[in-house]
Design a protein that fits this description.
The protein is of the alpha/beta class. It has a single domain, classed as Ribonucleoside hydrolase-like (Inosine-uridine Nucleoside N-ribohydrolase, Chain A). It is 39% helix and 16% strand. The chain is built from 13 helices and eleven strands. The chain has helices at residues 11-21, 40-53, 77-80, 102-112, 126-134, 138-141, 164-168, 170-180, 194-197, 204-213, 237-255, 265-274, 321-339, and strands at 2-7, 27-33, 61-63, 117-121, 144-148, 190-192, 201-202, 262-263, 279-288, 299-302, 313-319. Strands 3-2-1-4-5-6-11-9-10 form a nine-stranded mixed β-sheet, with helices on both faces. Helix 1 packs parallel to helix 2 (40-53), helix 5 crosses helix 8 (170-180) and helix 10 (204-213) crosses helix 13. The structure holds beta-D-ribofuranose and calcium ion. Beta-D-ribofuranose is lined by residues 10, 12-13, 37, 79, 122, 148, 157, 163-165, 265-266.
Amino acid sequence: MAILLDCDTGIDDALALIYLCSQPHVELVAVTSTPGNVDAAQAARNNLALLELCGRPDVPVVIGASSPLRVPLVTTPETHGPQGIGYAELPPARRTLDARDAVELWVEAARARPGELTALLTAPLTNFALALRAEPRLPELLRRTVIMGGSYYYQGNTTPTAEWNAHVDPHAAAEVFAAFAGQPEERLPTVCALETTERIELRPEHVAALAEAAGCADPELVLPEQPEGLRSRASNGLVRHVSDMLRFYFEFHRGYDQGYVAHVHDYFAASVAAGTAYCATRTASVHVETEAPRLMGTTVADYRGLWGEPPNARIVSDNRPDESFAEFVRSVGALARTLG
Ligand code: BDR
Ligand code: CA
């Protein structure tokens, strides 16, 4: 399973990346870094450091666009921490970025391996929209496309109606969905949106289970009654960093009255791309709002063909959170054990 990942790393992007590194059947072709949760340079630094942490310094990391297509970049340090990885302080990577541009890399890779690559997009769709401008045949050249973005008949997490990735670059999202209109069903992007990704609600017990699976010497307790910002002392490096990221994410969600939990949207999208998660989907024609000021980035799905337009997406309509966490703990726990 050859996967090209584009991300704005981000705590849940980091979990997605770590999860893909833990999957022996996944070939991570490259990681491209898009501005969103943090700027593109910081996303790339995080990607390099995470790949080194996971023993994968061979995977190319590149940068593309430095801002959304038509609106100024907004980042979100309150959600993911000043560097995008919560309280974790990763050792900086020993290598530097690959000199290629993300858009060139996407186009070259897709042309070189037609029908083989799965595109996994867990960021605003800026780089992917630019790649589609450069190579409009991308929908046919890719094996599959998986997008984390949007919310359908479900409240937004950025404005009352808009999800973060769609809101940061609504014009890019609109271009991407337009590019897939009329493709056969199997080529339509699989869209993991808030109504199903917010069901993937990671809790302290999952951190404890991860530490146990990794063979940590002591129980890993990340608890709501502990002081904010407490740092992990886990004997396993990967568990320690994941725990420090997640404590920040738990505190953020609690601050928005969602409880001491973390919605790990991008991990779910990664498991869909890797083929390890159950999901049901419904085809739809997706519209992304780019004009109405209060509705910028709002996504609407026409499931019933009322607009008379061909479908451009397969939106995930059901998933299985318990299975997702069992898989995360097993797979990342095994990776952590091998890294020590
Ligand atoms: C999306 O927004 C980002 O903050 C997360 O990384 C995820 O990709 C969820 O709305
Ligand atoms: Ca993300």
